[in-house]
Amino acid sequence: MTSTTTAPTASVPLAPGALPLLGHALPLLRDPLAFIMSMSGYRTMVRVRLGPSSAVMVCDPALTRQVFLNDRVFDKGGPIYDRIREVIGDGLSTCSYTLHRRQRRLCQPSFHPARLAGYGEVFARASQRKASSWTDGDVLDVTQEMMTLTTRATMETMFSGALPADTLRQALADTATIVSAFFRRMVTPALLRRLPTRQKRRYDQARSRLAATIEQILADRRANPGDHADLLSALIGAVDEESEGGQKQLSDSELADEALTFFLGGMETTAITLAWALHLLSTHPDVQHRMQAETDEVLAGEPLTAAHLPSLHLAGRVLTETLRLYPPAWMMTRTVREDAELGGVRLKSGSTLVLSPYLLHHRPDLYADPDRFDPDRWRDAAPDRAGYLPFGAGPRKCIGDQFALAEATLALTAIVARWELTPVGDQPFRPKVETSLSSRGLNLRITERRRDAAAPGAEPGTASPRPADAAPQPVTGTCPVNHKE
Ligand code: HEM
């Protein structure tokens, strides 16, 4: 419904610096975060130009939430999702409102807490294997290490098996090529996107190779059906009882899209969250030592398992704060499906909206000293949910949030339990801004921890170890934010 007292979209101020044809593509490509943060002076909305087309960027937390909640009117779409759709088709994360509810009902059982308990054990084992594969004094390419960890863990939880080493390496390289191309392709006008450049050829090859790998995995599963207790079995077995007359199960092509969606959506975001958390711990040794103390107390010499998750409080706060400072999905887009009103402004059907958790997470009116890494800001206070959106909100909220938090908490714990992390060089490390806030190029030095001395900064008694005879807990992330809507 459009009210008569609303103002036209043209009344929303246009961000300075737009060029004909390119719009704001240059500042967005040159320094996207600086460009986004330059919007923080606008309290409600500002217009930006992505190529020749215009978009409205929503700067206010309550309006952002309004957009997330009303996915019928503010539907998935816009330049980010148009590019992602080129790779994963109409999977759960890219499909429109009309297809979404059925797909969500079919995918949700794969993330049921009962299944997460099994996945948690895979994460704990994979994390410990990874942490044991390093040598004292190593300088790690942290992003690469975390990508191999989350890819292996994702492969095992999704497809209950490992890929041959060279296929896995190729899948990692293809994923990196695709993910880093998304953002460039999003801000490049369509005409230039179609030019047969070397980058475009690499992108096309990576897309088809990754799709072929997933196809092969699905073909192997068809040849060897049954419940493998993995995500793929849950997807294959899912039945949508509410689908009257329609298809009650996922078709083969839907299965391929969902498998690729979970693979791409899950492993890169979790890997870079972990890489940023390790970076922050290396630059904040006081927090690192407190985490080591908590880890020592909770594990008490036992191997790490998913049952330790509910006691890893500081690890949870570190991840909450990491996701505030470096939300992988730093920017999202939406398409307005019918003429609508938002914050007193009339939006025409077909307009594009831009939402930015990064902008909200760094607003000084929402977070005191917003650039400071301070996990303890989450100790007592539940965050204002409208101003903390690393997983989005509403019906399109991340389906893998608890999966990711459990995986990241266990990985962080396994690493910190054994290694001391220190930065390499004295230059501040800045994100490479792509579709996500990439930590590509981050190196850290690891040294084996000395166990004979208490970790400096230890807070004895702050952790609550699980009694030896306690029943295993359902796996949930330890993040104090209630990520459930
Ligand atoms: C730290 C890790 C992760 C972060 C920060 C993250 C972030 C997000 C965000 C912000 C959205 C909403 C996008 C929007 O509204 O436009 C989303 C959706 C989604 N995520 Fe995640 N995600 C993470 C991990 C995962 C994992 C592990 C999986 C799967 C295994 C996953 C699968 C999905 C899917 C399928 C959607 C679409 C949900 C829907 O539209 O119903 N994500 N994620």
List the helices and strands and how they pair.
Layout: H1 25-30, H2 32-37, E1 45-50, E2 53-58, H3 61-69, E3 74-76, H4 79-88, H5 97-107, H6 113-132, E4 139-141, H7 142-159, H8 165-187, H9 190-193, H10 198-223, H11 231-237, H12 252-283, H13 285-299, H14 313-325, E5 332-336, E6 340-342, E7 345-347, E8 352-355, H15 357-361, H16 401-418, E9 419-423, E10 432-433, E11 437-438, E12 443-448
Parallel strand pairs: 2-8
Antiparallel strand pairs: 1-2, 3-5, 4-12, 5-8, 6-7, 9-12, 10-11
Helix pairs in contact: 4-8, 6-7, 6-16, 7-12, 8-10, 10-12, 12-14, 12-16
Bound molecules: protoporphyrin IX containing FE.
Can you tell me about this structure?
- The chain has 485 residues and is an alpha+beta fold.
- The chain has one domain: Cytochrome p450 (Orthogonal Bundle).
- The protein has 16 helices and 12 strands.
- It has helices spanning 25-30, 32-37, 61-69, 79-88, 97-107, 113-132, 142-159, 165-187, 190-193, 198-223, 231-237, 252-283, 285-299, 313-325, 357-361, 401-418; strands at residues 45-50, 53-58, 74-76, 139-141, 332-336, 340-342, 345-347, 352-355, 419-423, 432-433, 437-438, 443-448.
- The strands form 4 sheets. It has a 5-stranded mixed sheet, sandwiched between helices.
- It is globular.
- Protoporphyrin IX containing FE binds next to helix 12 and helix 16.
- Its cofactor is heme.
- Residues 445-485 are annotated as: Disordered.
- This is Cytochrome P450.
- Belongs to the cytochrome P450 family.
- Heme binds at residue 398.
